[in-house]
Amino acid sequence: MTGAAPAGIPLRQLLMSLGEPLVELQAAPAGLDVPVSDVAILDPEDPATAAPGELVLAIGARGRAALPALRAAGRARAAAVAVKLDAPGQADALREAATEAGVALLSVRRETRWEHLDALARAVLAGPDAPESVEPNVGDLFSLAQTTAALTGGIVSIEDTSSRVLAYSRSADSDEVDDLRRLSILGWQGPEPYLSKLREWGIFQHLRSSDTVIAVEPHPELGLRRRLAIGIRAGAQPLGTIWVQEGSQPLAPQAEQALVGAARVAAAQLVRRRREVSADVRLTQTLLTGLLEGSTGPQSLATHLGLNPHRPATVLGYATAGGQAVRAEVTGLISVHAAARHRGALLAPIDSRIYVLLPDLPPALPLSTVRDWALEVVAAARTHLGVELRAAIGSTVPGLAQVPDSRAQADRILDAMGRGGVVPEVAALLDVQAEVLVSEVLALLQERPGLRDPRLAALTDYDARHGTRLAESVLAWLDALGEVRVAAQSLHIHPNTLRYRVRRAEQLTGIDLAQPQQRLLAMLQLRLPSADQDN
């Protein structure tokens, strides 16, 4: 095959950054200088595809099930495929397939979480080409970790305030790495037994409250080597921690001074990262809200998030009677469930409702699948928050340009639910077409008194003044299609009593319920609340 190689970093550099704790090279038929330009996640339910220069993470495809991914990666000139192996013997068949396909094969440790490997690989790709640079102001935490390791002579990891690993330096000798570091990298977070010991020794309290370096003495019985640590802080706000583990050689004399400088650089980078993430979230919300409201075209959001504007999309709308605090909790719950079901789900609270845009949907996604997703959210809100949610499924539209139409349809259903006209807690228009249309006609009657029959208004006024139930009885009789016994039973009265009330209503108002038009208008107008009928 011919063509320019995609820009990126050499596979060799990516492997050096990822390190032995996470991945192991099984085959590299094209060598270690092939460029890696991107990371792609291949879900087991997706067709096996790849793009030039990609590191393909074959999630869920263990053993021979990864063969289609290897072949597709080879055809597309991808850089490498990463898989998990259930048994040692599986590697032989996969190595042979990788060699035949001409694509590198990486095996991933079973304990490693795919989302962590994805995040780490993307962070390495986003960093500078020279990770050993002593200029750590490039904004790359991995570069900073490597630089700090060079200055201190130790093995460095940078963690957030929840002890989640953000970046770490590579170690040439895995025997130098103690259990705490190895388990932290594999699990992307410090293991709880070790963390509890650090809390017991007062290490975390010091890191949260002080800008100075603290030493943690070795504890061979726990598998811990000596290490230094310093808190990363922005003023009084803790942002994380830098840890330097001692290897086979003592730390450099200037290790503590280097740590102080590294913590200040890391603080600036983390603050900047938070601001960038916050700005990106605000921009996404602005573009998404504009698209849902029809004030912004689809191309801006598609370009910003890399979406295909011509793939099917659906809008889900959620409503609850709770206040702002309740909506905040519900919004968090919906976001988690939506992301679990659809990787590209986007969420936008607008006024009292919460909308979820599902872009890039498969062309033949069944409505029942989306309904099941919405039902899960409604059930979770009731179980975990004690909140009653209503959910409406907008139409599936052919592209992002039609998203406002899908949102409008969801709003029509939610409006009808709010008026009490729709029984299901989750519904699409196909489920409740008649209920929605009747609800909208009633809303029109509420807004325009001139469309109402004054004789029916006089009937409800008579009931209000005399404590009678004539209007209710007429409506029950109409709903039962004139079946007196059925209507009387619904009101818990004798059939003769119902006949009397219907005749009395006709005598008082002059309406003629034998006329189809008058019956139709009575069925609608008598459904209005009494206050609206009398206006």
List strands and helices in order, with pairings.
Blueprint: E1 9-10, H1 11-18, E2 23-27, E3 35-36, E4 38-42, E5 54-58, H2 67-76, E6 80-84, H3 90-101, E7 104-108, H4 114-126, H5 141-152, E8 155-160, E9 165-168, H6 179-187, H7 192-200, H8 203-209, E10 214-216, E11 227-234, E12 237-245, H9 255-293, H10 298-305, E13 314-320, H11 324-341, E14 346-350, E15 353-358, H12 367-385, E16 389-393, H13 403-418, E17 426-428, H14 433-447, H15 454-466, H16 470-479, H17 484-491, H18 495-509, H19 516-525, H20 530-534
Parallel strand pairs: 4-5, 5-6, 6-7, 16-17
Antiparallel strand pairs: 1-3, 2-7, 8-9, 8-12, 10-11, 11-12, 13-15, 13-16, 14-15
Helix pairs in contact: 2-3, 5-9, 9-10, 11-12, 13-14, 16-17, 16-18, 17-18
Question: Your description of this structure?
Answer:
It is a single chain. Strands 2-7-6-5-4 form a five-stranded mixed sheet, with helices on both faces. It is built from 20 helices and 17 strands. It is an alpha+beta fold. Strand 8 (155-160) and strand 9 form a beta hairpin. It folds into four domains: 9-125, Udp-n-acetylmuramoylalanyl-d-glutamate--2,6- Diaminopimelate Ligase, Chain: A, domain 1 (3-Layer(aba) Sandwich), CATH 3.40.1390.20; 128-273, 2-Layer Sandwich (Beta-Lactamase); 300-440, Reverse transcriptase/Diguanylate cyclase domain (Alpha-Beta Plaits, 2-Layer Sandwich), CATH 3.30.70.270; 448-534, no CATH class. The longest helix has 39 residues, at 255-293. Helix 2 (67-76) packs parallel to helix 3 (90-101), helix 9 (255-293) packs antiparallel against helix 10 (298-305) and helix 16 packs across helix 18.
